[in-house]
């Protein structure tokens, strides 16, 4: 193989890697696998006390690279994870949306967090719809659940708008409180 052939092969591999990292596009958003370079922007949502006030508090900044890496590995293993949410117009990561997996991809937890500048623009709903479509196309997901802090009324509205059914209150160890619990069967 000559130099030109090698360059074409390398370019094809790079393009395939980029495509594999892109999960789904919506009108305004792209969901993709998290990369190590997303560490700095992740501080704007997971590392922000105001954003995470209803989610057990901000993640310590030095832990964020480990979190991002674990989500990338989860996607490699299961084909599902929590994804970076990119605003197409700006090309900036504005949040995260996707699924926490406990033991198998049959039952997954939907989560979403966004930088404050993107609140109130419908991005959480749009990203959540995209995530539900990913789950439907995955082939193994049978049930999606979600919960929210009892004071986070905006999340209740989003979940109900998406078609989740309210199941009642449930205790969550990670937040150490009872939270409204919603589910959706696929």
UniProtKB/TrEMBL annotation:
<feature type="domain" description="N-acetyltransferase">
    <location>
        <begin position="29"/>
        <end position="186"/>
    </location>
</feature>
<dbReference type="InterPro" id="IPR016181">
    <property type="entry name" value="Acyl_CoA_acyltransferase"/>
</dbReference>
<dbReference type="GO" id="GO:0016746">
    <property type="term" value="F:acyltransferase activity"/>
</dbReference>
<keyword id="KW-0808">Transferase</keyword>
<dbReference type="Pfam" id="PF13302">
    <property type="entry name" value="Acetyltransf_3"/>
</dbReference>
<dbReference type="InterPro" id="IPR000182">
    <property type="entry name" value="GNAT_dom"/>
</dbReference>
<protein>
    <submittedName>
        <fullName>GNAT family N-acetyltransferase</fullName>
        <ecNumber>2.3.-.-</ecNumber>
    </submittedName>
</protein>
<dbReference type="InterPro" id="IPR051531">
    <property type="entry name" value="N-acetyltransferase"/>
</dbReference>
<keyword id="KW-0012">Acyltransferase</keyword>
